[in-house]
Structure formats: structure tokens, C-alpha cells
Amino acid sequence: MTGSLKIGLMFLAGLLAACAPAALPSPSVSQPSVSPPSATPTASAEAITLTFWDLEEGGGATKARAALIAEFEASHPNIKVNRVVKSFDDLNATVKFALQGREAPDIAAVNQGFTVMGALVTGKLIEPLDAYATKYGWKDRIPAGVLSLNSFKPDGSAFGSGTLYGLSTTAEIVGIFYNKAKLAELGLAVPATIDEFAAAARAEHQRGGVGISFGTLEKNPAMHLFTTLQNAYIDSKYLLDWVFINKPGLTFDQPGELKAAALLQALAKEGVFTPDFLAVARDDAVAQFAAGTGLFLMGHGSWKVGTLAEKMGTNVGFMLAPREVKGETRVATGSGGIAFSIASASKHKDAAAELLDFLVTAHAGSLYAAGGDLPAMTADQPPAAGLFAEAAAAWEEVRLGNSVVPFQDWATPTMLETTRNNVQELMAVRITPAQLIERIQADYAAFKP
Amino acid sequence: MIRRSIGRSRLLPYLLVLPGWLPYALFVLVPLAATVGFSFTRWNGVSSPRWVGVENYLSLLGQPVLRDGLSHALLLVVFFSFLPITIGLLLASVLSTARLRGVALFQTALFLPQVIASVVVAMVWRWIYSPGGPLTVILRDAGLEALAHGWLGDFDLALPAVGLVGTWVSTGLTLLLFLAGIARIPSELYDAARVDGASAVREFFSITLPLLRPEIAVALVLTMIRSLRTFDLVYNMTQGGPGTATVVPAYEIYRRAFLTGDVGMAAALAVGLTAFILVISLITLRLVER
In chain B, what residues touch A279 (CB-CB under 8 Å)? Predict the structure, then answer.
């Protein structure tokens, strides 16, 4: 009797707990208050503490934001900012839950795309920013292309247009770094077509050096590498549609993608990349390139400008993947940097918006530029000469030419894993280029937003 | 008087257990039940969960990543469980019979990996396995060119590489268990065997092994559970890579719950893994404790 009573009680407890999902943290469905712009520029004089979740980008932008926040606190004595810095993986894993909790941050770094920002928009956990955009005039300072990446339809079904939900402080593009001295030694000019690029890498490999410095133990560089080569062949408009609009008929199976995959596999097979690149850590490849190994460095982008400029001085250059046809407008994978959003649960939305605005002023832009990052807004100081100027020029080219394409992993929640895993398999010559394309398209077709 | 003491003694045991049972129920049973509940829903971690019945379980059965993950975990069982137990048995019998000075030192050194945080273990071994790291250098100097590259980037060697780290970590535990077990065995048995002319090997198989059955059972269950549950080594060393070469069920659970926002599916996978581990443990116990 006692034994079965015990078991019965435990079973009951389990049953009751199983009903818990209904009672468990339901998202705070607060009415998205689009508060009318207040008459005075600063929030009321009460003492306010803002909690700010920042992203550790391992470069100048994080430090620049820290400096800007300090400046903001100095000029707004009634506002204190409690800044918490997290890594990219940590942020993505925790921000969704944090914004539902009682101690939700007022401002949080939110990754674009369906998985994080989309889920937060659907759950009404972040604040629509259109009214603030009008009040502060963000549309005049930040290019439409960057703003649109942080815009979602309010039901979370599509992004790339719609209501603004976040602000990026920096912009980033994926590209190729090159060692100027080695290029000169080979007697080559900066490659103007993709074939010239491949030839240069092969030439360096021929004479015993490393053609392309590359390490992908952490899997992300594999994806960046593929998208860089892809941009030499594809039409940017098709990729924009493919990522942002998920409807039948749009397919990854394009001749350009196949050519890119084939070139990548050929170069990997020939040994043009860092030996054992699947086991080389991402930052080790950067360090090796900075120390003089490798004609090109791939798998990275403008966010490495600060580090490389510091280590290599004038010996390093930045370029986008050249096209098949000389002179064609180049295409670059890029976006605004991580977006900063205001929590719907925040009790100090106006103050938060004030801080956000301060982070995207022209003055802020000059700090980002000084740290080696491309500002998302027009900065009030022209970029200095050198590596940063090259990156900034590349950014200008694709911005004005309207040929920025989004990061591929935004297409579906599983696209990041699918792309980077399969590019690794492609480079290890375990699957064919056709299979890579097929698997990416299969992931895409299986997704229902 | 007697009736009152009987009444008190009937309730008292439960009251004594309650302080221990309450946190257990709160931190283990409730989340477990909640996970089972989630496994029948589709949930992105933000909006309200949507009831879908057994759909998650059915779709899991058809996914290749489940088959791969499970086969990888089973290979890890060899490295995390069978190897450490074998090595532990051999080491324990040597250490307990040999007249070595500083046996305690050996025991401490061999047990040290158990004490180090797994993240630290992962970071150190990541360096050891890196191209240009100590292992590669040693292999190259030994003339084994074919193996002298970064093992964590090799589609065939990455999983064994992770496995060997587990062997290194778990051997200390099994050694400790078996040393304690051997200390339990009366030395008269060994003396009698020696008088009868038994060799050391004979002693091992006829006396040590059979009498260590309970310890072997404990070691098997502990190490098997640990190997099927492995997450931190994979997450910190390879993130399931290269490609999907080191994907294990626990990593898949993490990925779905936190990275792709498919909490219901992650819960279903977690429940499946738990059931699998339970069954394996029960079978193991039944086989060994006969």
C-alpha cells in the first residue's frame, strides 16, 4: 500500500509537471507601445539604469561602443548604463530567453535572420523602431540597404523590408586580404578577374608558398570562403531574392553556384590552401598570414581590418572577389553588423532610443572607423589611407552598385550548419559540387517560415 | 505509549527523506517531466508552444543525423568505457601487487584528469592535436607521416581523437574503483593461489576478475552513461565537425534547442536519449551482476 502510494504520488507529480508547458514562461505579450516622440530630446531627469547586452566582436567595434557609452553617461548624468558583453554563440543561445525574463536587458544585440530576430519579432519581445527612426532621422544617416536587413514583417514571416526592429552600428563585408610584397615578388598585379585570382594563388603554391591562408576548425570560415567565391559568378539580385523571399521556384541551383563550388574543390584538391586547413583554427590562419605565410587570406572580412593593419602595416590589401568579366561591378556578402534592439519589456524605451541614436551618430562613425570597422552610417571624418581605406572603398562600390548580398545562413534556421558542414565535405573532396548545391537547396525547400 | 511511537515511526522516514527529495524533485523530476511535455510540442523558445503529438518522434526516426549521432556515441562507448575499464583493471592489479614506492603518487597522477574542468581538458587537447602541436611533431619524428597531421580536421580520425581524450579522463575513475575493490579481496586467496603455483596472470583471471564484478558493474554503468551523454568535449573541440564526423546526440540536442530554435524536437531527442541510456544501463547491470 505504502509503496504503490509513493509511486502514485510521484506519477501524479510528473503528470502535473507535464501540464507545466502551458504555465511555463509565457512571453511577456506587452502591447508594442509605439510611444510618440517626446517633446524634449532627453528622457525625464529621474535616475535610470539601462542594461545593455553587447557583442564581443574581437575587434575595434566593441571597444568603440564601450567608449561611446562612457561618453553618453558623461553627457547624461541621470542615466547609468550597465554593459554586459557576450560572445556571438553565447548571445544567440541566451538572448531569446533573457528578453522574456523579469530582468530583461533594455537593449540587446540581436542577430538578424529568422532564428533570433524573427523569433523575437513573432513573440513581440522587441520594440518596433519606426517612430524613433523618424524622430532621430536615422534614414538619412544609414543606407536603406543596411536598414532593410534589420526590418521584419510584424508577423515575423519575412524580412528585408517592413518595420524596423534594430540598428546596426557597423557594416561588414566578406572579402580577400592579400600580401602586397608577395604579389610584387610574383610580378603580378592585383587580380582583376577570378581566373587571374586563381592563377595567382596557384603560382604562389607552385613556388612553395601557401596560396591561400585559411583555417576552418571552427566551421564558419568555410561558409565565408564559399560565399566569397560565389560572388565572383552569381547575379546579386537572385541571391537577395533567394535569401529574403522564400517561395517555390527560387533555387540555389544556378550555374554560378556550381562554378564556384567547382573552383573551390579544385583549389582544395591541388593543395592551394593552408595544409591541413580543416584542423587549423580560424585565428591561427590569420596569425600565420600576418606573420607572412600565404599570398591571400580568406574566410574573413572587414572585421579583421584593425588586427591586420596593426600587424602588417602597409603590406596588406583588401579586395572583393573579382568577377569573371573584367570591370563588372563586384558583389559582396555583407550586412550591417549585429543589430541592437530595444526590449518590449523595457521600462525606459525613450532613454534606450536616445542611447541607440548616440551610437549611430557621425561622431560614433569616426570612432568605429578609427578602430578599423566600417561604420554603418556616414562618418564625419574621411577614412585614413591604408587597409581601412581599401575596405571602405570596397564597401562604397557595392553600396552604390546595390550589389550587397546577405549572409547565406539567414535563409533558414538550419542553413548555417548545412552550408558550413557541406563546404567542409566539399573541400575534403568527399562530395561533388553538384551534391553541395543539392543539399543547400534541399535545406531551403524544407523550410516553412 | 506504544501506539504513538508506531505512528511517529511510520511518518518519520518520509520526513527525513523530504529535504533531500524536494530539491531532487524540483531540479531533476520537474524539468524531466517538463521536457517530456515539450517533446510533444513545436516551440521556438519564444512564442507559445504548439501541440503536435508524436510528430517530433516520428520525424526523428527518419533523420540520418540521428543514426550518425548514435553510431558515433556507440563508438565513443568503446573509448570512454571499455578501454578505461580494461586499462584500469590492468593498472589496478599491477599497482596493488607490485612493490613500488610512491604508489600513492601514481594514483594521484592518474586520477588528476578527473578533477580538471572539461573545458580545460578540451582546450589542452585541441592544442595537442593541432597541426604543429606535440602529437603531430612526435608522429612526424617517429616517421609516421600518414598520421602526422591535425587529427581534429580529419574526417576519419576526429572521432577517435575525441574518444582518446575520454579514455584519458575516465581511466583515473576506473583505476580508483578497482583499486578499492582489490583492497577488499582477502589476501589469503592470493596466498593460497600462489602456494598452488598459480602465475600472476592466472591469479588475475581466477581471483581478481570474478571478485571485482560489482566494481566492474559500477564502472561500466558510470562510464557508459557518461559516454552516451558526451557534449562538452565535442562542443569545445570540434563542434561536431569536420562536417558531421563528430556529431553526437547531446550536441544535436543543444543545437536544436539553442541555435535553430526547435525546442520541441530537442526535447524529443533528449527523451529518446534518456530512454536509450536507461535501457543500456539496465541491460548492462543485468548481464554483469548475474
Answer: 129-131, 149-154
